[in-house]
Amino acid sequence: MEAAIQSRSSVNILHNALIVTMDSQSRVFQNGAVAFRGDTIIAVGQSADILEELSSFSPQVTDLQGQFLLPGFINTHVHTSQQLGRGIADDVDLLTWLHCRIWPYESNMTEEDSYISALLCGIELIHSGVTCFAEAGGQHVSGMARAVEVLGIRACLTESIIDSGEGLPAAWASRTTEECIQSQKDLYKKHHNTAGGCIKVWFGIRQIMNATDDLLLKTRDTAKELETGIHMHVAEIPYENQHVVATREVDHGTVTHLKNIDFLQKNLLAVHTVWVNKDEVDFLSDAGVKVSHCPAAAMRMLGFAPIKEMLNAGICVSLGTDGAPSNNRMSIVDEMYLASLINKGREVFTKGTTDPTALPAETILRMATINGAKSVLWDKEIGSLEVGKKADMIVINGSSWSMMPIHDCISSLVYSMRTENIVSLMCNGHWIMKDRKILTVDEPGVMAAAKHASSELLRRAGIHIPSRMTVM
């Protein structure tokens, strides 16, 4: 048992659980317990040892009856402000998706829309076991921050930043580089470390086709000065690399150019990174760049990223869902399942042979937990169940038709678990969901508000989704 106790007050113990710690030793306790005081874990180990050691503290004891106890999942790429747009851009190419659907949608959002959208997205994230997410970049960060505080989970919030490009909505086309940087500085000052330290504000670059080099360099320098992260879509589609070669005079594409201007840094979270070559994988690795892999969105519009090669190169790769218009499911559980399968299948296309050992279950689970924490620069506090870390935990009921029988607990969590198996969630020492009921928001009320807000938003944006069937 590990224990670190500083006071005799408010000790809680979750015991009789199958604890998957995700610590550096990959320890699993068959009949384990986690004790926490306030928001901090003070002991991890065998139930009998912890119950005996802490009995004099009159702890509040919860019997988990053999269920799984894991660190909360971390979604490293999600557009919370796009949740009201679920289904508005299905089955279209990326540039049509962006210019004709998403940009009109986002540019017509109000702060209240962003708040409602983030609440709706947060509900789905919580039900899928997510205790922390990295916002991919949207409008009205203050609305997002209000939603995160209400929900009670963690977030790295990012504004969608664009200072150039074709086809931009009028409101965005007029923003200067300096305005883009100042806006983010103001948001950092207003929201960073709020909500009891659960909200961080990062800097954002939407994509290189909408960013001048001046914006890139000022973003790099300002984020370094404020000691925060940078969130950026990188090398999503072949056209992006073609555009960079044509406009930046480099021999390959986005990652090569970012290396040339010294933009690749340890605080950069590069999302998708599908169209990269071997040299660029090495560039990312050498710079300590983190990568967010979004398998569902990649299969839908982008392609197959060289994730196995990135992991072999020592790159920290985590998992994201992307936004609702590019992946209608905001379930990190689904992404774990997909990530393993598509990266095994990718071997057939790249090498002409199968490799069932590619991205094994334990690697996938690390991507959803401790690698996620490293990707959002929060691994000193979250991502694993260890003494001194925050009490961010999820309870998983494996006694269902979808998971039984369980022969290998790690494999079952990755290949058999479904969102419905996640029954309770705690963040910062507070129960956010118990027995599949979220305690912090009125779910039916949020859904009713979202239905009304989404209809009004699409009307303002002039977006009409044609029916593919004959409606009678």
Automatic annotation (TrEMBL):
Pfam families (UniProt xref): Amidohydro_1
Domain Amidohydrolase-related: 68-431
Domain of life: Eukaryota
InterPro entries documented for this protein: Amidohydro-rel, Metal-dep_hydrolase_composite, Metal_Hydrolase, MTA/SAH_deaminase
One MF annotation (Gene Ontology) recorded for this entry: hydrolase activity, acting on carbon-nitrogen (but not peptide) bonds
Swiss-Prot/TrEMBL keywords: Hydrolase
Protein name: Amidohydrolase-related domain-containing protein
